[in-house]
Structure formats: C-alpha cells, structure tokens
Amino acid sequence: MQSTLASVWHPIGGVSISDLGREKYLFHFYYEVDVERVMKNGPWNFNSHLLILHRWKTGEDPLTVQLHWVDFWLLIHDLPLGFMADTVAYQLGNFIGEFIEYDTVATQLGYKCIMRIWVRVDVRKPLKRKKRAA
C-alpha cells in the first residue's frame, strides 16, 4: 500500500503507513504541503476501496475516530446562467451534504452550465441525484 499510494501522491517528504488493525491505517506525512494536497485532491481509493481520510488532531485516539465523511468535488450540470452564484452553490452543497467550497474558476473558463462544488458527504447515506426547483 505504501509504495502504491506514494507513487500516486508524490509526497515531497515521503509517507509512512502504520496498520492499526480493524481496517484502519495511520498515514504520517513529513510536510504540511503533502497533507494539504492529499486532503484537497481526494477522494482516494486503494484496491477499489474508498479511503476515508481524517486529519488526526492531538489527543484523538485513531482507533475511535468515526470515519463517515468524505470530501468530494462534484459537478452540477445544466444550471441556468442566472444560477451560477455563491448562494446557489452553498444551497446545493448543503442539500447534497455539507458545503465546503465553490470553484469559480470553472465558470470563468467558460463552462457556464457547470458548477463545481466541494462537499463533505456522509458515506452512510445514499447519494442524492436530483433536486427539483420549488
């Protein structure tokens, strides 16, 4: 696992992986920039299994951390031009899961019917595929 993920992530300082048992692993990065890049560019998978990553905080027990949330970049298609706004992105993100960020670059590049939002999704719940206008 370590060599495969290291070849995908290309961490500047490397990564070490400890098997904690019960299908949990502790990833140790040596540079903050590596952690940020891996967390922001996910989600990741290994052997067709979703890796649910959590940024460990001092004092937390890695074995008891609840791993139910994954951050996804989502594309929202076929939005009318008048709906390409921060408030709409926020509402759609919170409908799907928990809104994190709205990518305005996609709109500026001319992809006017597509909105890209970063959303935290609870993997225990089914995905929401459609939202109808009220």
List the helices and strands and how they pair.
Layout: H1 2-9, E1 15-21, E2 24-29, H2 32-40, E3 44-46, E4 49-51, E5 69-76, H3 86-96, E6 98-103, H4 105-108, E7 115-122
How would you characterize the overall build of this protein?
This protein has two domains: 2-54, no CATH class; 70-122. The strands form three sheets. The chain has a three-stranded antiparallel sheet with strand order 5-7-6. A two-stranded antiparallel ribbon has the order 1-2. A two-stranded antiparallel ribbon has the order 3-4. The chain is elongated. It has helices at 2-9, 32-40, 86-96, 105-108; strands at residues 15-21, 24-29, 44-46, 49-51, 69-76, 98-103, 115-122. It has four helices and seven strands. β3 and β4 form a beta hairpin. The model has no long low-confidence stretch (mean pLDDT 85).
Q: Please give the count of helices.
A: 4
The biggest sheet, with number of strands, parallel, antiparallel or mixed sense and barrel status, is:
3 strands, antiparallel
Shape descriptor = elongated
Strand order of the largest sheet: 5-7-6
Order of helices and strands: HEEHEEEHEHE
Number of domains: 2
* Rg calculated over all Cα atoms: 17 Å
Averaged pLDDT, please? 85
Q: What is the CA-CA span between the terminal residues?
A: 47 Å
* Low-pLDDT residue intervals, each spanning 5 or more residues: none
Proportion of residues in β-strands: 25-35%
**What is the count of β-strands?**
7
Helix share of residues? 10-25%
Structural class: alpha+beta
